[in-house]
Design goal:
It is built from twelve helices and 16 strands. The protein is α/β, with parallel strands linked by helices. A nine-stranded mixed sheet has the order 11-10-9-8-12-6-13-16-15.
């Protein structure tokens, strides 16, 4: 029996599903963004999207919306239906029970518990299953989830606010404010899009930043502080947020660690003299923190770039020139010895924000990808 669908191409309904996926009121991490549309006799009879871990998946939401009209219909979903028991039952079971006859999906789910198994189960039960529709758009939507599932690491965004000559403070250390109010507001909104915001201890000691979105109704991100010797004050805003993780080394004082833990801080301890960033990221991913905004300072950002841990850059430029070799730079670290080792952004865009500009781009993780 063929599903009673319209003659519109699958991409038409897949783009509807992608638009639905973006309607989640909050980032669903560590789960993916997923939208679903059910079509029968050329008419959309069911819609759904995933709202976060522990809630119903998009397919189930759409099946509930469609009710009996799902029988004999076609289902369009942005990610291959799951087939395992997690926080919720398998979507493949719900699809089969509803009598869906055709399934179209955008991306194969890289989660090892799915990874093609969901599609195979549906095919074994006689459904027509096809994938790969709107792959590029679906990949961009779920870049965070896809990186986590394929590497076990969080997706890292570097957020920087500088003068035109790339400085984050004058030679005397003055930094407030280089960018204008609108640029700062837009930068804070980035925090609401990520599960965690990371800074170094010097940023905490010099600025005592809030590190939250300061936006009503938005979720509060974790504040992650790199602090090898546990110098962070218990009365700083990061600690008082109630969602603070401090990464230190085994050389840190046990008494300071105990004092921070009594204040509600989660302390992660690593061997050596410096916090190993890759090991920290893997540990955060095991804690289901898979979306990370790195705000600095310069040495921290430099280390992330040197180790090729940055996936995306959001850089806010203000029309001011600070000058001086002694002014603090946005990205320190070792840096590139040759141009073909430099970080050349891909798919870069520029946007006017207040009296500043925002440059956003992806970081390719292979050498020699720059333009000539």
């Amino acid at each position: 029996m063929r599903a009673r669908t319209s003659r519109r191409p699958p991409e038409f309904y897949m783009r509807m599903a992608l638009d639905l996926a973006r309607q989640s009121p909050a980032a669903p991490y560590p789960n993916p963004w997923v939208g679903c549309v059910i079509v029968r006799d050329g008419r959309v009879v069911g819609k759904g999207f995933h709202r976060g871990a522990g809630t119903r998946h998009a397919e189930v939401e759409a099946l509930i919306d469609a009710g009996p009209q799902a029988s004999g219909a076609a289902l369009y979903v942005t990610l291959e239906p799951c087939c395992h028991h997690g926080r919720t039952p398998p979507c493949t079971d719900a699809i089969l029970k509803a009598g869906i006859r055709e399934v179209y999906y955008a991306l194969k789910d890289p989660n090892p518990r799915v990874a093609g198994k969901g599609a195979r189960i549906l095919r074994r039960h006689g459904l027509m299953v096809r994938g790969g529709f709107c792959r590029r758009e679906a990949t961009a939507l779920n870049d965070v989830y896809l990186k986590f599932q394929t590497t076990g690491m969080p997706f890292v965004t570097a957020k920087v606010a500088t003068s035109l000559d790339g400085k984050i403070a004058t030679r005397t250390g003055q930094s407030k404010w280089i960018t204008d109010a609108e640029a700062r507001r837009r930068a804070r909104l980035l925090r609401a899009e990520h599960q965690a915001v990371l800074v170094g201890i010097n940023t905490i000691l010099s600025d005592d930043p809030h590190l939250g979105p300061r936006k009503a109704g938005s979720g509060e991100p974790w504040r992650i502080v790199l602090d090898s010797r546990l110098r962070i004050p218990c009365d700083c805003q990061a600690v008082k947020s109630g969602k603070c993780i401090v990464a230190c080394t085994s050389q840190a004082s046990a008494a300071r660690k105990a004092r921070l833990e009594r204040a509600g801080v989660k302390v992660m301890t690593f061997k050596g003299k410096q916090v190993p960033l890759k090991a920290l990221l893997k540990r955060l991913a095991r804690e289901e923190i898979i979306s990370l905004l790195v705000e600095g300072g310069g040495e921290v950002l430099g280390s992330f770039f040197d180790l090729r841990l940055v996936d995306r850059v959001d850089w806010f430029f203000s029309p001011v020139i600070l000058g001086s070799a002694q002014s603090r730079v946005a990205v320190a670290g070792l840096g590139a010895a040759r141009l073909d080792q430099a970080c050349w952004l891909r798919d870069a865009s520029i946007e006017k924000v207040g009296n500043s500009w925002r440059v956003r781009g992806r970081v390719p993780h292979s050498a020699g990808t720059q333009r000539t």
